[in-house]
């Protein structure tokens, strides 16, 4: 053994070949944490002292290669100076340059995921051999930053600017087939043949059959573009990337700017340009937000896995009550992810609708090449439509998804409980009705909880798992395990009107109602909030959710929290409802809808909406953008703070992710609590005082006041 640490070993093979193996002790994956970076420096130092070396293999002792930098260490970076951040990049860049300049050929053996820094070390090697089961990529822009260890320099010089920009701007994982087609790797091999192919490739390089010096020269030289070619290429690329990324995500366009600025430079100067771009992005609120979301997502996944481990048995068979669009969506998702499911309805028409929904979603996957026709048939066969309870005694969980009516749900749940095994979990997909209230109809309330999916089921990641007063840990554990099997993000919350997401969403809608009451143009409010980052403004969102659904839920919220959610005026949404303007479902709401060529509803402005609103609103006037944002967001902020303070949700991180995955809160802002941290609670308090006349929803909570007084933040 030439060198050994808890991250890297360096050993010699009999034929003058050395192997540098990454195998980070105590971790399931390899990553570049401080230990690994230091170990790489020491391993290279040891390598420099060796003689009679013919070549080097860079390998992994784990099922993945290297997944990238240790993101948990990134948070400290946001408080560092630009100089300190550049020094962070510089040390690793020095290592990779040493690796690139070794006096013998090097081959990276990519056996699994090589992401971010994991791919960048491979790019520093002369040759790359990749398993057909592996994935590579540079996902840094998804974290609001850019590759900081030579990715923007070496990749364009290996595969060309256009392809390299697309890899980095999208941050997508690339398959072995895509990687070799692009020229990012030199060979691919089946996993069991990977080492042999890598060794053969290295021997070919040692024998002079491969132009190693030419490869090194290309990576260290300016890009082969003259001024005219460069001007045309970068103008086109920047226009395309700016359009796709949007103004709220600066990292993708910065990637292009860094490559362009360094196009005429050699390796070391180009790395300095990259390092400066990396440091600039690392100091932005967007990077802090995106890295924060990544870490929150890791926490959420760990929490969900923790619940799954507590489950006393796996969910092998499921059932859904109520077919239709929602039931069909649940059945589709369950079967797609490998859990056979019964789909029960009281009428054949309902079953037909549910099966049609599943069939439509599967057919779309087939048409896009994401599934074979045979696989589609298999998934459909695992959905068992039925008008009876036959076979329900063998299912592990039943999800009730019938009409949102308390009496109907009481009756259906009580009846279903008689047909399932004593230890089966019964869950309701209700979006507003109290779990404790629904449990009153049951003999085994300990086996009952909420399992609230968001529509459309196949597209929305979030599932709220709602604990009632009598719900057992076992029921929660099994339900979270089922959500995990379905590929969903499960957030466990306690019972209250609206649970978490709807409880927080409706104060936001109330802010909209008060703005329109006071003379704001609903279109103007939509535009401001969409530019702020929401996927759709409040009026448009109301139409998509369904005006009738919104009115019903608003009534539940007003009854549950009358001090701040009961309106003392007729709202715009109620006016739409009274005039049978239900939104997209009947083609008219705040907007009117016609189908485009692709069969999707396209919104158009309706003069009738303004005529209907005129009697209940003040004379129309223009509101300042910042006032619209404050009046919309403050009620959401204070209500979410209450949910954390009351223990409805376990943490600020889970709350932020619930809004991200449930209603599309702007990712680049990192979540409500992250946003409040970025603007400062002092600013939130100032806005609260300014709009205190609008009611209790605009008042800071006791917990918010305490944090403000103590100078604390949520993260």
Automatic annotation (TrEMBL):
Coiled-coil region(s) at which residues? none
Q: Does the keyword NAD apply?
A: yes
Q: Does the keyword Coiled coil apply?
A: no
Q: Which residues form the 3-hydroxyacyl-CoA dehydrogenase C-terminal domain?
A: 498-593
Per UniProt, the keywords (alphabetical) are: Fatty acid metabolism, Isomerase, Lipid degradation, Lipid metabolism, Lyase, Multifunctional enzyme, NAD, Oxidoreductase
Q: Which reaction does it catalyse?
A: a (3S)-3-hydroxyacyl-CoA + NAD(+) = a 3-oxoacyl-CoA + NADH + H(+)
Look up the record and name the pathway of this protein. Lipid metabolism; fatty acid beta-oxidation
The 3-hydroxyacyl-CoA dehydrogenase NAD binding domain is annotated at 318-496
**InterPro entries per the UniProt record, alphabetical:** 3-OHacyl-CoA_DH_CS, 3-OHacyl-CoA_DH_NAD-bd, 3HC_DH_C, 6-PGluconate_DH-like_C_sf, ClpP/crotonase-like_dom_sf, Enoyl-CoA_hyd/isom_CS, Enoyl-CoA_hydra/iso, FA_oxidation_alpha_subunit
Pfam families with a match to the protein in the record: 3HCDH, 3HCDH_N, ECH_1
| Annotated protein name in UniProt | enoyl-CoA hydratase
Source organism of this protein record: Congregibacter variabilis
Q: What is the lineage of its organism?
A: Bacteria, Pseudomonadati, Pseudomonadota, Gammaproteobacteria, Cellvibrionales
């Amino acid at each position: 053994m030439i060198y050994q640490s808890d991250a890297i070993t360096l050993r010699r093979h009999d034929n003058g070949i050395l192997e540098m193996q990454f195998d980070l002790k105590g971790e399931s994956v390899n990553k570049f944490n401080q230990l690994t970076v230091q170990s790489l420096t020491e391993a290279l130092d040891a390598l420099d002292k060796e003689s009679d070396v013919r070549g080097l293999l860079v390998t992994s002792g784990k099922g993945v290669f290297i997944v990238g930098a240790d993101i948990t260490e990134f948070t400290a970076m946001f408080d560092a100076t630009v100089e300190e951040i550049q020094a962070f990049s510089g040390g690793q860049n020095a290592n990779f340059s040493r690796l690139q300049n070794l006096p013998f050929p090097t081959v990276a053996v990519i056996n699994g995921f090589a992401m971010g820094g994991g791919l960048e070390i491979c790019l520093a090697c002369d040759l790359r051999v990749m398993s057909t089961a592996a994935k590579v990529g540079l996902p840094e822009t998804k974290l609001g930053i850019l590759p900081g260890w030579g990715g923007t320099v070496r990749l364009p010089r290996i595969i060309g600017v256009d392809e390299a920009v697309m890899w980095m701007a999208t941050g997508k994982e690339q398959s072995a087939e895509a990687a070799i087609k692009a020229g990012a790797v030199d060979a691919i091999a089946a996993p069991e043949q990977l080492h042999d192919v890598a060794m053969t490739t290295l021997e070919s390089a040692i024998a002079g059959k491969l132009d190693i010096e030419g490869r090194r020269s290309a990576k260290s030289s300016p890009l082969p573009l003259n001024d005219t070619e460069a001007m045309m290429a970068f103008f086109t690329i920047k226009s395309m990337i700016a359009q796709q990324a949007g103004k709220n995500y600066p990292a993708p366009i910065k990637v292009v700017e860094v490559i362009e600025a360094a196009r005429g430079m050699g390796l070391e100067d180009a790395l300095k340009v990259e390092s400066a771009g990396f440091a600039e992005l690392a100091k932005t609120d967007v990077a802090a937000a995106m890295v924060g979301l990544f870490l929150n997502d890791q926490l959420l996944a760990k929490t969900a896995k923790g619940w799954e481990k507590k489950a006393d048995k796996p969910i092998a068979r499921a059932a859904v009550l109520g077919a239709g669009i929602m039931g069909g969506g649940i059945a589709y998702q369950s079967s797609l992810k490998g859990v056979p499911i019964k789909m029960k309805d009281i009428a054949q028409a309902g079953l037909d609708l549910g099966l049609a929904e599943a069939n439509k979603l599967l057919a779309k996957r087939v048409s896009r090449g994401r599934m074979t026709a045979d696989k589609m048939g298999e998934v459909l066969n695992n959905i068992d439509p039925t008008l009876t309870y036959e076979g329900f005694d063998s299912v592990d969980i039943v999800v009730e998804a019938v009409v949102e009516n308390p009496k109907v749900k009481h009756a259906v749940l009580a009846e279903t409980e008689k047909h399932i095994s004593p230890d089966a979990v019964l869950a309701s997909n209700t979006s507003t009705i109290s779990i404790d209230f629904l449990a009153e109809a049951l003999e085994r309330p300990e086996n009952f909880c909420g399992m609230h999916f968001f529509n459309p089921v196949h597209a929305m990641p979030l599932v709220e798992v709602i604990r009632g007063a009598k719900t057992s840990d076992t029921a929660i554990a099994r339900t979270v395990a089922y959500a995990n099997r379905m590929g969903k993000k499960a957030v466990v919350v306690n019972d209250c009107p609206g649970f978490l997401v709807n409880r927080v969403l409706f104060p936001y809608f109330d802010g909209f109602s008060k703005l329109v009451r006071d003379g704001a143009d609903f279109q103007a409010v939509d535009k401001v909030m969409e530019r702020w980052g929401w996927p759709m403004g409040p009026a448009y969102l109301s139409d998509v959710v369904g005006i009738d659904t919104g009115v019903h839920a608003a009534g539940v919220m007003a009854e549950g929290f009358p001090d701040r959610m009961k309106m003392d005026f007729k709202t715009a949404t109620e006016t739409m409802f009274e005039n049978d303007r239900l939104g997209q479902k009947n083609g008219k709401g705040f907007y009117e809808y016609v189908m485009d060529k692709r069969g999707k509803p396209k919104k158009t402005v309706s003069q009738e909406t303004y005529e209907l609103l005129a009697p209940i609103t003040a004379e129309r006037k223009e509101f300042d953008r910042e006032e619209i944002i404050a009046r919309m967001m403050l009620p959401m902020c204070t209500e979410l703070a209450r949910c954390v303070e009351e223990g409805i949700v376990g943490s600020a991180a889970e709350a932020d992710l619930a809004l991200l995955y449930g209603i599309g809160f702007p990712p680049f802002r990192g979540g409500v609590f992250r946003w409040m941290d970025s603007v400062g609670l002092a600013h939130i308090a100032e806005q609260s005082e300014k709009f205190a006349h609008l009611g209790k929803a605009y008042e800071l909570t006791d917990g918010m006041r305490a944090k403000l007084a103590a100078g604390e933040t949520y993260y």
